[in-house]
Amino acid sequence: MSTATDLDAADPLAHFRERFVGAASDLVYFDGNSLGRPVAATAGRLGTFVEQEWGGRLIRGWDERWMDLPTTLGDDLARICLGAAAGQTAAGDSTTVWLYKLMRAAVDHVARTDPDRTEIVIDTDNFPTDRYVAEGIAAERGLSLRWIEVDTSAGVTPEQLREVVGERTALVVLNHVAYRSAWLADAPELTRIAHDAGALVLWDLCHSAGAVEVELDAWDVDLAVGCSYKYLNGGPGSPAFGYVAERLQDELTQPIQGWMGHADPFLMGPGYTPAAGIRRFISGTPPILGMVAMQAMLELVEQAGIEAIRAKSVALTSYAVELADAALPEVTLASPRDPARRGGHVTLHHDRMREVTARLWQRDVIPDYRDPGGLRIGLSPLSTSFDEVERGIAAVAEAMR
Amino acid sequence: MSTATDLDAADPLAHFRERFVGAASDLVYFDGNSLGRPVAATAGRLGTFVEQEWGGRLIRGWDERWMDLPTTLGDDLARICLGAAAGQTAAGDSTTVWLYKLMRAAVDHVARTDPDRTEIVIDTDNFPTDRYVAEGIAAERGLSLRWIEVDTSAGVTPEQLREVVGERTALVVLNHVAYRSAWLADAPELTRIAHDAGALVLWDLCHSAGAVEVELDAWDVDLAVGCSYKYLNGGPGSPAFGYVAERLQDELTQPIQGWMGHADPFLMGPGYTPAAGIRRFISGTPPILGMVAMQAMLELVEQAGIEAIRAKSVALTSYAVELADAALPEVTLASPRDPARRGGHVTLHHDRMREVTARLWQRDVIPDYRDPGGLRIGLSPLSTSFDEVERGIAAVAEAMR
């Protein structure tokens, strides 16, 4: 078994760690999958933005840069970490609002083209907001939800999806990486199964974007959403993003028809005409400051490359599993043991984990707790060292004693 | 006629001007009603937030402050500039998303309680995004729009509203200050007329919040929305806000049911149960950085007091009208001459104004242009001096020659 020191010395991405605020402190941060650390450059960039761009260019900033920022930043996200060509991704809103807009766009489209398809397929361990949005849309559009029962330590398998999709399925809503177990879904295979049944698919990438390889175009995905505050380190509540495959953009419309999704926002005339392309999925005035805060991290992700990031992510989670196996015999792994089926975090199960988490927080070791009995260890690849993992697992062992 | 120097010398709020980035420059900023200047303190506060709060507290920030920020900031907005008691206002999302959520909440409620009311009343010069959202909701909910025809240099009068509301009216959607003409609607009287007809009212406060006195509670308003990037200087695309009168909160539900509007967001169980009170109108993870950027301005508004701000606003727009009357004989005033019916901007009409605006921008005089032929002069009370108004109107006169 390699030591943390050996692993850090051999890590080609180790030098990125110093680019983050507070990474050199003694605090062990096991929650980079809930809220990533700020990149050190971000504070300065925000200051420059306020003083020079907002303060200096004032309203002219809209013409000069901001109007296009939702889609230029979307294209950056697409190129750097979504495996998507330009023109299909836009930043803005929250993940929840994107889920509402894109689920509605999908089911309203199917209602026009194939009205017998009246089911939304979703799994019981899908992230709560996805389930709540789907529940609301099903109620308001007269659809029903078809649930895939999922174990909280696993995720949706191709076999499970095959069993429930069919000629009644309008839309399948899945998480790429499960928020509790870190189950990494077989996205290309699940997308194919949904398509073979004639359904559309929406992928939630919140727990995978920036940590796991995503190939939306190659997988032939229809719709996707994700947030930027986890592995994309955009800050608390930073703008989310939505992806709509180019082949669907002209057929779909979304319900929150605001001026920024209009074909000509400054015409300000009567009647809404949706813009061409991805812009029709934008609604209101986009949150520019939040977009500025995302950029420094996106640049680091591009420099490191998503393949190298994923390789380090696998090494970090594997090391955490190895240490937990050795030091925490009373604990169960509530994440896939196979790294090919595991995203960027590891969940350890024990009935006392709520109490253990509280104790760890008092000692500046910061994992997350998720019912039932899950200690969730999120390992953000660019800001986490193997030494941090070792110190953290040792602290868990001590807290459990 | 007083000189600009006299007026600035007598202005009790003059000292606030130095608190804004760039206000001392030679640039004439006549667009503070589209995007307010940054408060000088904002860059530093954002830096501190990134380094210490986000970077230092990390995920713990949610428990410590951020979960409540949408409603504590909402309460600050309510107290400082909306005339509303605590517990009725939340910050977040864009104005467009708030319009969608609150219009849907209103018409869905009326559909349950009074299904014969199938009309949304709205005026032809309402801000485009309000009209587009209303149009979309009418189409999806099987309602119809009843238009009040409004002159682009005026706004909705009590007589006009009285003519169209009745037993078919579900909801009336009005702008407090019209984006083109600056018409300041008689909000208490219009609200009363709508209520007498048995309808709900939604006020869009985008062009009034922070510049004009608003008394949502005293006027018995049902619903309101507004943005924070105009007279509240929150920055491009800063978070919007929504107000729902306490008496309606438990009866209304909104369609974008996300985890942050759930009665217990971290329960993460099956089934959506809306939170009590204003929180049920929140959807996704709130944009914290954008909320931090709004706070410095809100403090200045509180220090100055909204009555004093409104008094200066009236003095600024009156001075602009006076100068335009004298120096621009070929121009028509496309705003109310009576300051009691005028918000914080003044629109001057001439067929050549598009060209004049372009010429002014080249000379660092920054008004806005709005069809048809409107040069819009927005005078943000705390950051604009009378001298700036004088220099700007002189530049308009020169550009027109």
UniProtKB/TrEMBL annotation, chains A, B:
The record ties this protein, via PANTHER family, to: KYNURENINASE
Q: In which pathway does it act?
A: Cofactor biosynthesis; NAD(+) biosynthesis; quinolinate from L-kynurenine: step 2/3; Amino-acid degradation; L-kynurenine degradation; L-alanine and anthranilate from L-kynurenine: step 1/1
Q: What class of enzyme is it?
A: hydrolase
Q: Which organism is it from?
A: Nocardioides furvisabuli
Q: How does it assemble?
A: Homodimer.
Q: Does the keyword Hydrolase apply?
A: yes
InterPro entries recorded for this chain?
Answer: Kynureninase, PyrdxlP-dep_Trfase, PyrdxlP-dep_Trfase_major, PyrdxlP-dep_Trfase_small
What's its job? Catalyzes the cleavage of L-kynurenine (L-Kyn) and L-3-hydroxykynurenine (L-3OHKyn) into anthranilic acid (AA) and 3-hydroxyanthranilic acid (3-OHAA), respectively.
Keyword Magnesium assigned: no
Swiss-Prot/TrEMBL cofactor(s): pyridoxal 5'-phosphate
Its protein name is: Kynureninase
For this protein, the Enzyme Commission number is: 3.7.1.3
Matches recorded under SUPFAM superfamilies: PLP-dependent transferases
Per the record, the similarity remark reads: Belongs to the kynureninase family.
This entry's Gene Ontology molecular function terms read:
transaminase activity
Give the reaction(s) catalysed.
3-hydroxy-L-kynurenine + H2O = 3-hydroxyanthranilate + L-alanine + H(+); L-kynurenine + H2O = anthranilate + L-alanine + H(+)
Give the keywords, sorted.
Answer: Aminotransferase, Hydrolase, Pyridine nucleotide biosynthesis, Pyridoxal phosphate, Transferase
